[in-house]
Write a structure and sequence with these properties.
Order of helices and strands: HHHHHHEHEEEH
Distance between the termini: 39 Å
Number of strands: 4
CATH architecture of the largest domain: Orthogonal Bundle
Helix content: 55-70%
Structural class: alpha+beta
CATH class of the largest domain: Mainly Alpha
CATH superfamily of the largest domain: N-terminal domain of the delta subunit of the F1F0-ATP synthase
Mean pLDDT: 92
CATH topology of the largest domain: Peroxidase, domain 1
Amino acid sequence: MASNKSSIRYAKALLELAIEKNCVESIEKDLSQFLRTLKDSNDLRIFIDSPVVRNEKKIKVFDLVFPDFNPMTIQFFRLVTKNGREHLLDDIAKQFDQLLKTKRGIVTGTLTSARPLDDKLKAAILDKIKGSFEGTLELNETVNESLIGGFIVRIGDKQLDRSVQSTLSKLKQNLVK
């Protein structure tokens, strides 16, 4: 929990500085590339998280691996690393993205269905739920065959469960009573 709070604080500070210096898009692009690189290179993740590797060495690697990054992004990486919080960089990047989406009025959520949905059905679902939130909705789609049919929409701490699995579970509970 403490690391999440720290990540949010660092992300807020970076976002405020990026807004002040008018380089939000550049920082956003850098952090997105950083996350992709971490996803693709487990060795880099292990290197960053290693308590054995000195911070100076990690800073040099950031300079070499990300030469095209905005100087402010690299300076931020240096600061976080000098503070011994480099293991939070991936979470900070995710928190930055989330804060930026919130600032832009984008609400993120997840649409889980038993099988991939066509565009017409997705539009119908979005039409039904659009009144329950403010902003533009950005849904990540996942498939979970155990739902049998229907869908589950999660937005923030709210959930709309219209799955066959849930209906059958409720029916079973009612029958057992």
